[in-house]
Write the structure tokens for this entry.
Amino acid sequence: MMKHICRPIAAAIIFWCLLFQATPAVFAQRPYGGLKDYPFIKIRHNRILNDRPGLDNFYGKLRALKTDRTGSVTIVHIGDSHIQADFMTAVVRERLQGIFGNAGRGLVFPYQLAKTNGPVDYRSYSNAVWRFERNASRVVTLPMGISGFTLETNQEGAAIRLSLTGAANRRHAFDRITVFHDNNHDAFPFAVTGNNTGGIDENAVRQENHPSGTTFFLPSHYDSVTVAALRTGDDQRYARFYGISLENGTAGVLYHMAGVNGATFKNFNESVYFASQLRDLKPDLVIVSLGTNDATDRGFSSQEIYSRIGLLAGSIKTACPDTDILFTILPDFGSPRNRRLKQNIFSARSAVIIYSREKGHAFWDLYNVMGGQGSFQKWKKFSLAQGDMVHFTKSGYALQGSLLADALIEGLTVYGSR
């Protein structure tokens, strides 16, 4: 009997060693001290639940990537304001890419052109004024796509320049980009231009069109690029832009993020091009971090959020049948005196757990891991959460990212021992 018990333990130890021996520094990158500094965190609960079979496909591809060092594993992480600033997702991206290789920066959006906050590792500029909306806008008149934001203009020659900043210049230089845009006879097509992009030779750029946009293959690696909407036909009247993916063509993890301040499950369900553009990203895993804003809806009901969860998961699986889904459960937040909100949070958490268990999806219980009901105040005391009782600080989001990365790595390790 002891022999059978020891075998999986030995296998786990061997797998840990093989996984970590080439990159020991990566696993020391836990921000803001050790987790012992935060006694309210339930570290023993920090694991991915229902990951067998929920993440079988994803874990299998990660193991193959680590062994073969060929191909890529693609993750798409969607959510609300907890994701838009990229504080949480940047930590997960860097941890996973440090272990398995860096296949590129992934999906980005020129948030500055939409007059809102965004990640700090790139900047966006334009020579035109763009109309913009997000899927959480009070009134949505533009179709929404993969990023949850849309830019529109009728100005011919309108250009968008994206430039990586700081250390991202070295880590995420790209040689291929995919521009998500309307690709029909009424819309201006996009092209890569040589203006202010570090001297990209337009004649050396190869492109492939597809229903969701255009992929451009560049002659070398660059840290900035300009794409412009150029009229090529008399019937073309406008351009719509939904996002751009930056890739480098090497083996590793490609970690896309799409966050929208104030977004709910319903907002992503009503994003008409989200599923079709998601398909073009070919994700192996979709991480869904929604529910906070659903819980604050006046008409909140557990039945309604359960339905919203099912609609989103169903559209993801219809568009990408082989994709695994990981739900991250909403955190504790709000005043402890707001009993109705606290009940909504508990009901939303229960809906995610029930749906995930019924449909075989994995989930990560951030609510429980962070300490459960009332823990937001403890995070605030340690400068990990803000005074609005809703949002966390940059340090708090980064700590959440570190916890999620730990849970994914541990899950893969256990998977490798089975």
Q: What stands out?
A: The radius of gyration is 22 Å. The first strand starts at residue 72 and ends at 79.
